[in-house]
Each structure stands twice: as structure tokens, then as C-alpha cells.
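re: ur question from yesterday

yeah so i grabbed the chain u mentioned. its 190 aa long if i counted rite. heres the sequnce exactly as i have it in my notes:
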Amino acid sequence: MASVSFFSSFILSAMLILCVILLIKPLNYRMGKYISLFFCALIILCSCNDNKPKDVLDEQAMINVLADVHLANGTLLQLSAAPDTLYKYGTGRYQNVFKNHHTDSAQFNKSLKYYASEPDKLLAVYDETLKKLQKKADSLSKVFQKETEAKAKQNKKDGTVTGTFNKPDTTRLNRFRNKFKRPDTTKLKE
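ran it thru and got these C-alpha cells back, copy pasting raw so excuse formatting
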């Protein structure tokens, strides 16, 4: 988007230069040159504004909102694919995220469009968002690992065994074999 605004300002400045040249032609050559150069510099400087729109979230707030939006997206993946499911459960989750961060979907979309027009800033925001999500995932995996170790320790203390066994139950299998076993009739009696 930044290249589009630069291109449009370039076209506008070229048109203004032509108008100025046509209007100033009756003046002497040197004065017309200085005036056209002044207007050209003025237009280029005015088109280079790098101000944020006033309703755009700052980078840290955008990182927090994006992290929570992606977590909400992840929870929605667990739902069934019924037609109204996303509308029924998704809108409430997104509204809850925006409510927790004191913003709304319009401001979030405007901020996302602004950061999309500034790729370097968007990349920095998403890098921080990924770091934040990875930190949450690491902390959850540590908690899960501690719970698993605590359960294993408790089961060892109680004498119970958990886990899956790949060996079949041979006592039951032998009972089955013996039940249907017929005597061998091919052996000769002596």
C-alpha cells in the first residue's frame, strides 16, 4: 500500500509541475524553475506522512489481541463442522477476546489492515505473537508433564500399573484352546 501512495503522489506532483510550468511561463525562466521545484518538494514531503491512524492498536496491544484470537481459533477447531457451530460459538469467543482487551472487531480489523500495509511492523508483531504462544505452549507442556509424573509416582506408590500392554492374555487363550481340543485320532493304539 505504501508503494501505491508513493506512486499516486508522484503522478500528482508531475501534474502539478505541468500546471505550474504552464502558469509561470510568462515569468522569467529561472523563477519558474524555482517555483516548480518548490511545489514538487512540497508535494513529496507532504505525501511522506508515516502517522498511524488514531484508532490503530499499538504493537503490544496488537500482540496480545492476536495471541488470544489465535487461541480462540484453536479452540474452534475442536468443534464439530455443523453449519451453525462457528456462528453459534465463534462469535461469542471473539467478542469475549475483544471485550477482555477493551477493543472491538472494527478497531481490530483497522489495526490489522494498518499493520498489513507496514510489512516490517507486521512481521515484528507476529514474531512476538509466536513467542508468546510458544511460551504458553511450553508452560502447558511442563504442567502436563508434572501431572503425568505425579500420577505415575502415585500409581507406583499404590501398586497399580497403568499403560497399555501388547501381550495377549494367555490364560484365557489357553482355556479357549483346551475347551475345543479334540483327541488325536490318527495315533495308533498299541
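noticed a couple things. Residues 59-155 form one domain. also The mean pLDDT is 77.
anyway ttyl
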